[in-house]
Specification:
Helices cover about 40% and strands about 15% of the residues. The protein has helices spanning about 20-35, 45-50, 55-65, 80-85, 90-105, 120-130, 170-180, 200-215, 225-235, and strands at about 5-15, 40, 70-75, 110-115, 135-140, 145-150, 165, 170, 185-190, 220. The strands form three sheets. Strands 1, 2, 3, 9 and 10 form a five-stranded parallel sheet that branches. A three-stranded parallel sheet has the order 4-5-6. Helix 1 (about 20-35) packs parallel to helix 8 (about 200-215) and helix 5 packs across helix 6.
Length: about 240
């Protein structure tokens, strides 16, 4: 079976500096050449402090116009425990402030949320359900009234990320998930942090993306997938994949 689905979940859009900006542009060029779609997690407070004519703001607008990039809500402060520590009202405030930042730049509010460090509490779900635009949640609570994308885990229970250690894309992991999941028609969220990469990491990312392309994996935005597709084709572990 072919036709695997990957969501390229690229976190921490808002880090500034020459290296981060170069990596954003490099990812754009590479994914354009390969015909891949990219989902960027926006750090609301950092983006809000940039001038309207800054390079990063212009880049967000250009990415949005291309139709190959989407932007999701990655919290306001992006502290390690931002949504672990917040009550419902404060969580709503943080979510909506980042929603407003994204909407001001691209003209539409984000429909997807992912907590910083993928850490949250029970109040987060209640807050999201009161923020009407949020329909998709990366690694969220299964009781959420929208669609939750599961943390993909291997048989040892470890998170399957593009990066074997933080910030370092791992070709071998992509090869395994492609053979175990994608070539059988399954789906997975692939998480990475381009703003922190060095050139060797960019080259490794390129190798991973080329491998996906060769094996017919399609990249999608969350909004292109319905609940049945996510819950039947996105396994939580490699052990759930049909042989």
């Amino acid at each position: 079976m072919t036709g695997g689905i990957a969501i390229l979940k690229l976190d921490d859009f808002g880090i500034v500096g020459r290296r981060a900006t170069f990596m954003y542009m490099a990812v754009d060029l590479l994914t354009k050449l390969l015909g891949l779609k990219v989902c960027w997690g926006v750090m609301g407070e950092r983006i809000s402090m940039l001038k309207s004519d800054s390079r990063i703001i212009r880049m967000i607008k250009r990415f949005h116009r291309s139709g190959r990039h989407s932007f999701w809500n990655h919290g306001w402060t992006h502290s390690d425990c931002e949504f672990k520590c917040l009550g419902e009202e404060s969580a709503i405030d943080h979510i909506l402030k980042t929603q407003n930042v994204i909407a001001k730049i691209v003209g539409v509010a984000a429909d997807t949320f992912g907590a910083p460090c993928n850490v949250y509490n029970e109040e987060t779900k209640c807050a999201l359900e009161k923020c009407g635009n949020i329909k998709y949640w990366f690694y969220g609570d299964g009781d959420f009234n929208g669609i939750c994308f599961p943390f993909f885990r291997n048989l040892e229970g470890k998170y399957l990320k593009l990066e074997s250690t933080l910030y370092h894309p791992d070709y071998e992991r992509i090869r395994i998930v492609t053979q175990k999941v994608f070539v059988k028609g399954g789906g997975a969220v692939i998480q990475a942090h381009p703003a922190f990469w060095h050139l060797r990491d960019l080259f490794s990312f390129a190798r991973c993306m080329i491998y996906l392309k060769i094996h017919g994996v399609k990249t999608k935005f969350p909004c292109e997938l319905d609940k049945e597709t996510v819950y039947t084709r996105f396994p939580k572990t490699i052990g759930e994949c049909n042989e």
